[in-house]
Please model this.
Amino acid sequence: MKQLLPHSTSGKLTMMALAAAALPTAAKAQQPKPMNIVYIMTDDHTAQMMSCYDRRYMSTPNLDRIAADGVRFTNSYVANSLSGPSRACLVTGKHSHANGFTDNTTCVFDNTQQTFPKLLQQAGYQTALFGKWHLESLPTGFDKWEIVPGQGDYYNPRFIEQNGDTIKQHGYLTTLITDKSLHWIDQERDKSKPFCILIHHKAIHRNWLADTCDLNLFEDRTFPVPTTFYDDYAGRPAAAAQEMSIFKDMDIIYDLKMDRPDKNSRLKHTYHNFIGRMDKEQRAAWDRFYDPIIEDFYSRNLQGRELAEWKFNRYVRDYMKVVKSLDDNVGRVLDYLESHGLMDNTLVVYTSDQGFYIGEHGWFDKRFMYEESFRTPLIMHLPKGYDRRGDITEMVQNIDYAPTFLELAGVKVPDDIQGMSLMPLLRGDKNVKWRNSLYYHFYEYPAEHQVKRHYGVSNGRYKLIHFYNDIDHWEFYDLLNDPHELHNLYNEPLMQPLVKTMHRELRRLQEQYNDPIRFTQK
Model:
């Protein structure tokens, strides 16, 4: 007869056996989930048009959700304020001269070089890219991609698919890019792996064609021009030589849609190509909205400052309408992540490829190292376990994104990456040693808008810029006392010790980053 164990002993052993059997499951449950990355980047979205940064113009409630729940960088900058070069800096973590894509007119991105998506892919991540690429070569390092040719079209755009086909699709581009991104996250990716998706919008790029459902927005508002709108560019010959003036260079048809059969402009044909992509319903909605504005505009025969300020307001309203669609679609992404329990282990990043002028200095566009285009918005929702909230004031740059994503994923950051991982800032490390200055270099000249080549250094308080090539001109600004950069102090006697200090810092950074184009100390 089998001897039975006492009840108490039998129960104890049974519980121990059950606990032992459960150990692997419990340990597995306690392991942190791998971190996902959702990187949303727009084109030419300035911080002035995000209400988490600036409330003068419009509300962006969905972008504000990211900032309110996470962090807002108040000193975020780019290395080269231009679309393609900015994207190359993003994916490589290197300045333009190091990644080889210095401008949009002469360069083709070497897609065999090291990029953070490739390194994540090698580490077991699922990677995807949807939207604007703008680097002339096809994307590499992505399990799935669909990109628009060149700048892309707002209405009924074409997409280049991974199999090489180019397909025209019906709808508004911002919504279509979001549709594709959410479909991949929900239906196409391998859900046993962490993922990194780059959602790259054309919005809010020139010429600001709004979705038809948003055409009537903001028409009841009139905005005062910025305080620097009538800048005379005294002491700044490079600023005086540009061709991005709202008054002189903003095309009345292409940019402001004041098209009429008897009126012509330099870019009228291009405008017709863009709106010619609309179907009958879209075009009917477009004409219903714009026809009365066109009739009123030409009947008034505006001149001088009255015309300049009318153009400014037309521009601002169109820009805001494109932002509205973008904000709505960011909300769709956030809603999906929240409803599917992904927010706790996902870093959500929102930024732009650079800043943009909303009438400051009388301008639209970007390119200059002046603050409005040198700066770019940067907000992040942080995964669970990263408790930093509110503003991060350290100077950061778009070359920092690649090492940040790699460190978050547990991937070794290669030594040749020039950016700094933002992870110590996101963890709230108290003793982090951070940079004191940033380097900038713009190359695309001669080209559209005629912004001359220049490089420079900023430490947040002082900025030194050298315009070169067909010009040899230096500018120096005290950003605390002259935040609008109207007074070039380079030749002021009292400023010379500070100028020399910034000369040394510029030379140090050019040597650190091994930029072959350097200035020689006088």
Summary: The radius of gyration is 26 Å.
